[in-house]
Amino acid sequence: MIKTETGWPALPAAPDAGLLLLRLAGAFLLLYVHGVPKLLHYGSELHHIEDPLHLGAGITLSLAIFAEVLCPLLVAAGVYTRLACLPILFLLLVSMVFVHPDWSIADGQFGWLLMTIFASVAVAGPGRYRLGSLPRRGA
Prior knowledge:
mainly alpha, DoxX
């Protein structure tokens, strides 16, 4: 058994478990707070969504739903994880820089924390606990 500097046994899967927790927590928070409400209330969201890139409300809302619903599901599953983080990071960056430039760090802490989570996952990758890496029966 390998022991760490603290004397506790080393957990070889700890980084992978940490990445799984990071992926699931970030995806859940983004979906629950932003994605699902936009999807369920598409009509009302269409009337008050900010359009900082001047693409039109419909396109902007569709892209936001893509980044806040489909991409977090891919990240949670560990499928195309790094690629799926890019639209999320772009959306969060546009939101923080162009839509809410007047927010202090304290006001925008949720957005900055989500950016930190998804940037970390984009850099580290999904880890080994992901769909497609599960052992198959009989193999």
